[in-house]
Amino acid sequence: MDKDNKDSNDYREIDLDYREIDNKDNDFREIENKKESKDSLDKKESDINNTKDESKNKDEYEEICYICRRPESKAGKMIHIPSNICICSDCMQKTFDTINGNGMSYMDMMNLTPNLMNLNQVQEIPGSQKIKKKKPKEAQPAFNIKDIPSPHIIKGQLDEYIIGQEHAKKVISVAVYNHYKRVATNTMDDIEIEKSNMLMIGPTGSGKTYLVKTLARLLNVPLAITDATSLTEAGYIGDDVESVVSKLLAAADNDVEKAERGIIFIDEIDKIAKKRNTNNRDVSGESVQQGLLKLLEGSEVEVPVGATSKNAMVPMTTVNTKNILFICGGAFPDLEKVIKERLNKKSSIGFNADLKDKYDKDFNLLQKATVEDLREFGMIPEFIGRLPIIYTLEGLTKDMLVKVLKEPKNAILKQYKKLLQLDEVLLEFEDGALEAIAEKALEKKTGARALRAIIEEFMLDIMFEIPKDDNIGKVIITKEYVEHKGGPIIEMRSTFRLGDSHETIKKIEGNNTF
Fold first, then answer.
1. CATH superfamily of 145-330
2. pTM to 2 decimals?
C-alpha cells in the first residue's frame, strides 16, 4: 500500500515537472513570437522608409529619355517601359512610325545611339548624371539686391586672405557687385545690362587663381576652374569649349538654376593666342577663342550631365550662360615685349628721344597694357570685346612674400604651427628666416607658389623627428637653418606645456639644436 502511494506521488511530481517545462516552453514561444513580430514591424518600417527614400530620390531628379537623352523638362512626360527605361513621346512616335513603315528605316533605327536592341543591358542612370527638378515657385529675382554684399565689404573680406593687389581687389569687387545686381535686375524688368566678364593679367604666382577661389567661397556660388591649354575646337582630341559649362554644372550638384549664377575661371588664357606664320588650322588657338565667344556673350548650350564629353549613355541638359560670370586669367609673358615695342616707338621720335632701355627694369610693365597690345599678342578683337574689364596683378616683392607667409587668415606659417600644435609643440620663425624664405621664392620666379615647397623642404626633418621625443616643447626656425648653414633651435618641455604664457616660456634655460 505504501509502495503504491509512493509510486503515485512520484508520478504526480513527474507530471508537475512536465507541466513546468511546458509552461517554460510556452514562455519561450511567446518571447520568440514577440521578437519575430517586432522584427517584422521593424522590417516593414524599414521597407516603408526605403520606399519613401526611393520615391524622394525619384521626385528629386528628372527622368531622362533613353533614346534622345533629353530630361522630362525638355522632352515632356515620359512613357515607362520594363527594365526601368523611360522614353519620351516623340521617340515613341518615331518608333511606331518605323514599325508602320512611315518613318525611319529599320537600319536607321538600328544605328540609333544607344541601340534599341540593347534595352535589356541598361541599368538606371545614377543620380550624379541626372538633372534636379526645378521646384515650382512664383516669379522672383534670382538674387535679392539687398543680400548682395557691397564692394567695400567684398574687398574687406578679400583683404583677410590676400596680401597686396589693392587695385585688382577693388576692380573685382565692383565688377562682381555689378554683375549680381545685373542678374537680379534682369529677372524683374526688360532693361538689359551687359555682362561684366573680366580678363586678369598677372605674372605666375601672383594670386590669380587664389583670388577667384576666395571670391567664390565668400559669395557661396559654384565655381569651375579650367585650363585653356586643354581646350580644342570641337571634333579634335581634347575638351571642347562647352566642357567648362559641364564642370560648372557638376560643381552646382547638377542644379541648373544654381549653375546659371556661378563663376567660370579659365586659366592660362594667353596659351590660346592666335598662332603666327602658320598655314595649318589653329585648332587650339584662334578656333578656341571663336568657340568661347557664344559662351561669353550668353547663349543656351547643350551639355552632358556628370561628364565632360558627349556619348551615347550620358543624358543632356540645357544651360544658359547669360548670367554666368566668366573670368579669364593668364601670365602673358611675351606681352611685355609688345608693350616695350609700342612704348619705345613713341619715345624714339624727335630730338628729345628717351633711351630704348628705359623700360627694361620696369617690373610692372603689364599695367601699361592696352587692347591694341592684346590684339598684337594674338587675341582676336571679338574675344577681347567680350571681356570689357581688364586689369593687372602686381608681381610679388620680397616684403609682400613675407606678409603672405604670416598675415592671411590661412597663412602657410599658421598651417604648420597648427600641425605642430597637434603634437603639443610650439613653432616659431625668426624674421631673418622669413626673409630668407622670401628670397629663395624670388629666385625660383614662381611667386607665392614656391613658398610651400621651400618650407616643406626644411620642415621635413623637423616633422619626422618631433614624434620621436615627447620632451620637445618648442622649435624655432632660424635663418641659418633655412640657408642650410645650421640647425633649428629646440627647447625641451621640462618646465612648460603648450598654452603657457610667453613670459613663462622665456624663463626656460638650456637651448639645444638638432
1. P-loop containing nucleotide triphosphate hydrolases (3.40.50.300)
2. 0.68
